[in-house]
């Protein structure tokens, strides 16, 4: 009875050992097929290197408090360039304004000069015309007195200087003739100024009093 029992026990032990060996062999095969932890880590690091870098999201917490030196230098350079450009523009505008002011000043002086010439010429014409009017009135009065007084008319009738009018009337007549010639010269002087004004291409309004 013991021998069969022992045999059965041995058979059971051998069977269990066989199963254990088979399981160990399967585990060994599976271990050989699966990558080790070291390989997996190296593979993960390699894949991470090939991934594109994640975009930086700036927040109040990670925003730099001071600008980057290169950015600060670029901003300073841009500010200096802008300041120089602004100064150049201001200088050009100032120069243009000064040039325009100088041009306006010269034009005003030229206009004043021409208006002064015409004012002087017209004043002389007016004065000569007034003098002629006074002479004409005096002549008419003396002529009326001369013909209204028979004694005076007879006395002066044979006066060699009177010519039938008396010496005073003759003198006045000569003065009036001279004044008329002056008036004609005054008118010609004004006409010459107007021609010169047109030739120089200046405004015709400068020939009139403001």
Provide a descriptive summary of the structure in words.
There is one protein chain. The chain is mainly α. It has a domain at 82-207. It has helices spanning 2-33, 37-50, 69-148, 150-157, 167-199. α3 (69-148) packs antiparallel against α5 (167-199).
In brief:
The protein has 210 residues and is an all-alpha fold.
Number of strands: 0
Content of β-strand:
under 5%
Oligomer: single chain
Tell me the helix content: over 70%
Task: Please state the CA-atom Rg, rounded to the nearest Å.
Answer: 64 Å
Mean pLDDT over the full residue set: 74
Q: Between the first and last Cα atoms, what is the distance in angstroms?
A: 159 Å
Task: Quickly count the helices.
Answer: 5
* SSE string: HHHHH
Biggest β-sheet, characterized?
none
Shape: rod-shaped
Query: Spans of 5+ residues with little confidence (pLDDT < 50)?
Result: 160-164
- What class, by secondary structure content? mainly alpha
